[in-house]
Amino acid sequence: xxxxxxxxxxxxxxxxxxxxxxxxxxxxxxxxxxxxxxxxxxxxxxxxxxxxxxxxxxxxxxxxxxxxxxxxxxxxxxxxxxxxxxxxxxxxxxxxxxxxxxxxxxxxxxxxxxxxxxxxxxxxxxxxxxxxxxxxxxxxxxxxxxxxxxxxxxxxxxxxxxxxxxxxxxxxxxxxxxxxxx
Length: 182
Fold this sequence. Notes:
The chain has helices spanning about 10-30, 35-40, 50-75, 75-105, 115-145, 150-180. The protein is mostly helical. Helix 1 (about 10-30) packs antiparallel against helix 5 and helix 5 (about 115-145) packs antiparallel against helix 6. It is globular and about 50 Å long.
């Protein structure tokens, strides 16, 4: 394969997206409901199905990531790339949908008690913390693989893959914990 030099514009785009997306999500999560109402963000729109959609998108991302590993271990590079691009596409759709949902709905509260509460918040907090670095790590991994910068691709995927896998899996778990409260 031909090695393509890294494009600075693409890298700059990755860095900007890696900052803008977590900031936008944080703003939506912590924006007071009164502000959302005054901005006209909370209306009678029915997007109550979106938490389930988010869980499905996260679950499918998880499956595509696992399939991508099997493909690359079998030296099926094009199949690996396809699964990785599908995982990226589903994660991107998830992020857009997640922002839409949280700009139009107040955040649901977890009402579980006892040990389950500790487990839930451990999963939730680790999920949130790791969802921030997974954006640049995943984008850089895919970019370096796509441009055939295989050495850098392998180095970064040691970190990006397990984090992305964990974030997609715990996204499903968070939904399962929160499902009774939506």
